[in-house]
Amino acid sequence: xxxxxxxxxxxxxxxxxxxxxHFTIKRFHQPTIVGEIxxxxxxxxxxxxxxxxxxxxxxxxxxxxxxxGAIFLLFxxxxxxxxxxxxxxxxxxxxxxxxxxxxxxxxxxxxxxVPVSDVGSNGTQFTMAxxxxxxxxxxxxxxxxxxxxxxxxxxxxxxxxxxxxxxxxDILSLVLLSIVIGASGGRIDPVSIGILVxxxxxxxxxxxxxxLYFFRKVxxxxxxxxxxxxxxxxxxxxxxxxxxxxxxxxEVIGLSAVVGAFLAGTLFANTxxxxxxxxxxxxxxxxxxxxxxxxxxxxxxxxxxxGGPPLIIFGAVLxxxxxxxxxxxxxxxxxxxxxxxxxxxxxxxxxTPRGEVGLIVALAALTAGVINEALFSVIVVVMVVVSVLxxxxxxxxxxxxxxxxxxAQTATPSDGP
Length: 417
Description:
The structure is a single chain. By secondary structure, the protein is mainly α. The chain has one domain (2-51, 58-394): Na+/H+ antiporter like fold. Helices cover 79% and strands 0% of the residues. It has 19 helices and no strands. The radius of gyration is 22 Å and the shape is globular.
């Protein structure tokens, strides 16, 4: 009974404080994940454990519900992925530039600057570096969407490019995460990496085919049959069951569970059920996803970071690399695709914020023992900084695009004689 009481107590504290953090951080016009991570840092070992000898939360409990939060988050992102609108040539090229350049520069930065002592017990300098490179590849779709919604630009073509490229970016990053997790297990020779790539692509291909031609039809039929009987959520329950099934299969074959959750979400992205599923998963995510981001902060030990000047230097350099690699990696392909200079710059800044997937990669690295707690703390702080820093620059570049378009319309001659 004591265990049950502890769960109720910790859920009460976590959800109440998460709500408080949301109201607080929104006053500063920042994403809620920033407040959740900051809350986790305040409740983590930096203050409570070091100075008060208090561990407020059970790590096993928090990690279990945090895992559910990551699953629901990636399912929701998958629901927003309309394959027909997303997989255009321009979006894929922009996303590829935004994955390859940050990964390469992040890998080199970590390999050169991170001390050997900060590599995890199960890692090497090489596997640590590829994990760090993977953390800076994925754009935060949620943060980019929030800025575009605030400015009322979601229906503009530039917004479609940013959101489409961001989703492709997430998919490429998740495939990369799968490869990196396999490599962290010692499978880093070309043959093994090739097998991992093929496994990931087969899982995505077969999972999508089976989902579209079987699971999706089953879910729709269950939803229709349930509605006739007054059961509103039958289809949603089966969709979530399929999500956990895909997450389970992904884990069994050596990929990340979040890859399976994302794939499951995409099955229902362009169906009439998408809005209902988004609402239902949104409520589940509202409970569990904050716990995921709080759990990341709970694992941050700022005193451990402060005790290592090389890690502070690494964090500063990685922040600069994470920002400018995205601006250049995404902005240059956008410019070459006949966008104007300001539009290409807006795409670059819009793709710069990191968040959900990058933090999941960092947590996977810590869980796998490839990085230690101090390096994890640095990476989380970098993710927070690059989630907040680009927002005003993104807004400024979008304003420049609006002025540019207005000037072009004014300069257009009338159709008179």
